Amino acid sequence: MLDIIIYGAVISAVYALLAVGFTLIFGVARILNLAHGAFYALGAYCVYTLTANLHVPLVIAAVIAVLLVALFGIAMERVLVRPLRRLPPLAVLMMTLAVGLMVEQILLLIFGSEARNVPSLVESSFNFGGVLLSGQRLLAFFCSVAILGGLWLFMQHTRLGAAILAVSQDPEGARYMGIPSDRIFSIVMGLSAAIAAAAGVLVAPFQSVIPGMGLLPLVKAFAIVIVGGLGSIPGSIVGALLLGYTETIVAFKASIEWSQIVSVAAVLIVLIIRPAGFFGKRAAF
Amino acid sequence: MLAWGSLTKTDVIGAIVVIALLSVVPFVGSRYIVGIMTVALCYAIWASSWDFMSGLTGRENFGHSLFIGTGAYTAGFLNVSFGLSPWWGFPAAAIIAVLFSLIIGIPTLRLRGPYFALAMLSGAVVMQKLSIIFSETTGGQDGLNGLSPMLRSQVSAYYFTLVALVVTVIVLKFIALSPWGTILRAIRGDEATCQAAGINVNFYKISALMISAAFAGFGGALYANYQLQVGPDLFDVALSINIIIMVYVGGMGSIYGAVGGALLLIGLTEGLRSFSEYRLWVYTLILILILFFIPNGVIAPAWVRVREWIIGRSAAFTRRASA
Predict the structure, then answer these.
(1) Please, what are the domains in chain B?
(2) First CA to last CA across chain A, in angstroms?
(3) Cβ contacts of residue A153 below 8 Å, gap of 6+?
């Protein structure tokens, strides 16, 4: 029982990180970013390269990796996505998918298909009432909660956060108020990329770092965001908790195999019962 | 026939020329070329079935490999695990693929937004994972091997695939040109107006997906029976994307363009054999360039030009002859 609570919390926190970035860029710029998983994979690979090849200390490598991926996200928005905004929304969707695949292919060409190891920041394990948890998982949990909290403070208490919220409510109205929507889109894409990369960096030591590692998290993020409601940040956190715990319970009680189906089953059930998700606006449909 | 009304004589002659060219391949090409071309024809079936649903209704399907993979695995199971004749695989594959299309299509196609595209994508990803996880029954990473061959010679398999492709294109084009297809295109244009006109748009979208899935599943079974092997890579996202790129290159919504795109890109793949690791990379690059510069594709617009030129020429010729 306790092991389900503890492992579920770690998984949910990482899922929440992935889903929040995914839902943020959708809520603000209406971009469904299929390259989100690529940001996650890029984060992990950046840390790998920096520590294994360039021998940068792990903490600094993590920060550099997050910043690099954020820059990559901004560049992608500026160069590849923005010119397509006038076209039907599917063009943007195709473009993000193309970027995601391209990143995976480049990673495959550079690093090959074998799994890479990233060292843990915290080597020791901790014991919680008989449940042994590795330090890196604990770190992933606390960092995720801290990042989510920081994001909340940023959105609620800064001018930029207010501007982002304004654009997400009404891009045109925000433009009339003098908020540069295009620049906000870039910033949010960078922010979303940075959060996804942070998730990748945090899980890299206990996940196999392979070029295709971003695909399943993308599917999970998509499922969480559907459950919580597309574009809603609280919704994506609740969705992450729901999905993270359901998966953990299924993994512990049935088998790891069946936990893979949870996300798709959840998507289908939610779309049948309440397509807007728990926190989505019905008007959007 | 009403449904063929918009096809000109030039279109029919063009189609016959292409079929004739394709049927000469076994006489001029080596075994190797015939093998490649059989695979290319399978891709053409998949691409045209993708185009039928997504090109006509504008609802892009990011996981067509879900139908291909389920079709191929169905044919594989029936043949390897149950020892049935390969011919049973075709109807069974189509039926199972249609079943999957209903599971994904009914909840998601009634919604506006990207739900359908993403649910298809995740459906395919999860099926791929499941096919690896349940490796005792599916053979895991190696897949199912040793299907009994359906036709003895390679050349007859090629002709069988060619006939299957021609039938697929004729059926899909027939539906696309019928009033039924007009409704599908109207849904792409303005769904709300269709609804206001009393058209049950969900019914049309879901049935279009079922038809598309049936042909994709059939094509998957065809591929499995040709390769005598089924593997989890048939569920791969890369396969779905390759098909989408083929249709984009061909020109969306034309069906024959998808066939041209498939043949062209498989040809390109063969040309790039020495760079095989860069293949998907080149494909995605092509997709990005097409999205930017030629959103209408290459094959279908090119054929429209050629047709106009031929019609113009023959009109000038008759004028000169009568003068």
Answers:
(1) 2-322 (1.10.3470)
(2) 39
(3) none
Q: What are the residue ranges spanned by the domains of chain A?
A: 2-211
Cα separation, A36 vs A19, whole angstroms: 9
Q: Which has the closest alpha carbon to A230: A25, A77, A81? A: A25
Q: Which of B107, B114, B291 sits opposite A91 (nearest CB)?
A: B291
Phi, psi (rounded to 5 degrees) for A123: -85, -35
How high is the mean pLDDT of chain B?
87
Whole-number average pLDDT of chain A: 87
CB contact under 8 A, A216 and B288: no
Whose structure tokens read 């890299």? A204
H/E element, A127: strand A125-128
The answer to whether the pTM exceeds 0.95 is: no
Say yes or no for a CB contact (<8 Å) between B130 and A271.
no
ipTM of model over 0.85: no
Q: Are strands B229-230 and B144-145 parallel, antiparallel or unpaired?
A: antiparallel
Query: Tens of pLDDT along B138-185?
Result: 887 888 887 887 777 888 999 999 999 999 999 999 999 999 999 999
Residue B122 contacts residue B66 (beta carbons within 8 Å):
no
Alpha-carbon distances of B33 from A128, B39, B234, B246, B269, rounded to whole Å: 63, 10, 22, 20, 13
| DSSP string of B63-109, one letter each residue | -THHHHHHHHHHHHIIIIIS---HHHHHHHHHHHHHHHHHHHHHHHH
CB contact under 8 A, A109 and B278: yes
CB B142 within 8 A of CB B86: no
Q: Does B189 touch chain A (CB under 8 A)?
A: no
Phi, psi of A151 (to 5 degrees): -65, -40
Helix axes B256-271, B31-50, angle to 10 degrees: 140
